[in-house]
């Protein structure tokens, strides 16, 4: 360094004072190199710090190195080589996404407003009837890597797969099943078939729910379907009434039949026992008759008269009144007055 370039000068009385300093080229080069190094270190530090990333609780981190998947990251704080070496994608794996088939939500409301999409909603049933169906599909991500890289245009793919699954299930069902009691089975079959298709594609999605929003006949034939439905309801009502009558009358008839059978059995038993008793009595009487014929004959006559005479009208005629007997015949209760009119006749 030359003397005129030295920053300090000696005073006459002693000491030094600062003069104007003009640095040399090598000093400038040294200062520039130091400043450049400091800036480079700061830039490098900032670049390295930019590799810090946070994965949220509802996310999964997918680390790409030059566009290739090299690692996955769970929720928390992580670091990766900053751009342009690596980058991180953070899809939401807990968010349930919704897809609509046959309609679109215009305004969630309230009140909600919807627009029909006839090209998606009109489907053919197994009995060759047309039906209007609205379907809502809910799904979420279970494999972020497959979700991001295996299928292109995933939303449209899920939509097409959902529509195809529903059409296949409806094509195996009758119209009445889709309109009434078969809705739950249709939902479950559609969900199972859609999940199978997505697994085949490797979409990395799980079908959470498949819900039929509205199932009805096309508007053009709505009145005819209402008439048919009313006729079916009348048919079911009449069948139920007839079944109720049958259930009421059959037990009653069975009870009467059982009563008649029991009475017949009782009558048969009574007659058999009475006949057996009469036979036994006859045999006893026969034995007595064979022992004492005359006495037994008289006893039988008297017993018979005791049974017969109290049940008949009796007329006592005086001697000689037999000639007038024809006047009082037949001897019936209505001719009692006539008997009183016959001379010599006493009842």
Quick overview of this protein structure:
The chain has 347 residues and is an alpha+beta fold. It is built from 9 helices and 15 strands. It has helices at residues 25-49, 118-121, 144-149, 154-170, 175-179, 183-201, 222-291, 293-308, 336-341, and strands spanning 8-10, 16-18, 52-55, 61-65, 68-73, 76-79, 86-89, 97-101, 103-107, 113-116, 122-124, 130-141, 205-216, 316-317, 345-346.
Task: Please write out the topology.
Blueprint (H helix, E strand, L loop, with lengths): L7 E3 L5 E3 L6 H25 L2 E4 L5 E5 L2 E6 L2 E4 L6 E4 L7 E5 L1 E5 L5 E4 L1 H4 E3 L5 E12 L2 H6 L4 H17 L4 H5 L3 H19 L3 E12 L5 H70 L1 H16 L7 E2 L18 H6 L3 E2 L1
Antiparallel strand pairs: 1-2, 3-6, 4-5, 4-7, 8-12, 9-10, 11-12, 12-13, 14-15
How does this structure look, described?
- By secondary structure, this protein is of the alpha+beta class.
- It has 4 domains: 23-89, no CATH class; 97-216, Band 7 domain (Tetrahydropterin Synthase, Chain A), CATH 3.30.479.30; 221-294; 295-346, no CATH class.
- 48% of the residues lie in helices and 21% in strands.
- The protein has 9 helices and 15 strands.
- The chain has helices spanning 25-49, 118-121, 144-149, 154-170, 175-179, 183-201, 222-291, 293-308, 336-341, and strands at 8-10, 16-18, 52-55, 61-65, 68-73, 76-79, 86-89, 97-101, 103-107, 113-116, 122-124, 130-141, 205-216, 316-317, 345-346.
- Strands 8, 11, 12 and 13 form a 4-stranded antiparallel beta sheet that branches. Strands 5-4-7 form a 3-stranded antiparallel beta sheet, with no helix packed on it. A two-stranded antiparallel sheet has the order 1-2.
- The chain starts with 7 loop residues before the first strand and ends with a strand.
- The model is unreliable at 1-6 (pLDDT under 50).
């Amino acid at each position: 360094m030359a003397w005129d370039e030295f920053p300090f000068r000696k005073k006459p009385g002693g000491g030094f004072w600062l003069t104007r300093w003009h640095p040399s080229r090598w000093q400038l080069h040294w200062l520039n190199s130091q400043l450049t190094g400091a800036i480079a270190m700061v830039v490098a530090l900032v670049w390295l710090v930019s590799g810090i990333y946070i994965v949220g609780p509802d996310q999964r981190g997918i680390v790409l190195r030059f566009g290739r998947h090299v690692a996955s990251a769970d929720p928390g704080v992580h670091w990766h080589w900053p751009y342009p070496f690596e980058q991180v994608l953070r899809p939401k794996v807990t968010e349930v996404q919704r897809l609509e088939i046959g309609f679109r939500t215009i305004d969630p409301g309230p009140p909600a407003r919807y627009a029909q999409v006839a090209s998606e909603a009109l489907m053919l049933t197994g009995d060759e009837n047309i039906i209007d169906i609205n379907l809502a599909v809910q799904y979420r991500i279970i494999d972020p890597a497959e979700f991001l890289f295996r299928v292109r245009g995933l939303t449209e793919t899920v939509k097409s797969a959902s529509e195809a699954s529903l059409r296949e299930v409806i094509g195996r069902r009758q119209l009445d099943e889709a309109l009434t009691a078969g809705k739950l089975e249709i939902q479950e079959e559609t969900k199972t078939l859609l999940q199978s298709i997505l697994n085949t594609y490797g979409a990395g999605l799980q079908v959470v729910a498949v819900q039929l929003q509205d199932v009805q006949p096309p508007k053009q034939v709505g009145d005819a379907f209402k008439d048919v439905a009313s006729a079916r309801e009348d048919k079911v009502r009449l069948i139920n009434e007839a079944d109720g009558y049958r259930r009421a009358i059959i037990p009653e008839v069975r009870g009467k039949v059982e009563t008649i059978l029991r009475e017949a059995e009782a009558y048969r038993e009574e007659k058999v026992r009475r006949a057996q008793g009469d036979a036994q009595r006859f045999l006893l009487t026969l034995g007595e008759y064979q022992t004492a014929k005359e006495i037994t004959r008289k006893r039988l006559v008297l017993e018979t008269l005791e049974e017969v005479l109290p049940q008949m009208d009796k007329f006592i005629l005086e001697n000689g009144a037999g000639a007038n007997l024809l006047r009082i015949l037949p001897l019936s209760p209505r001719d009692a007055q006539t008997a009183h009119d016959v001379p010599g006749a006493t009842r």
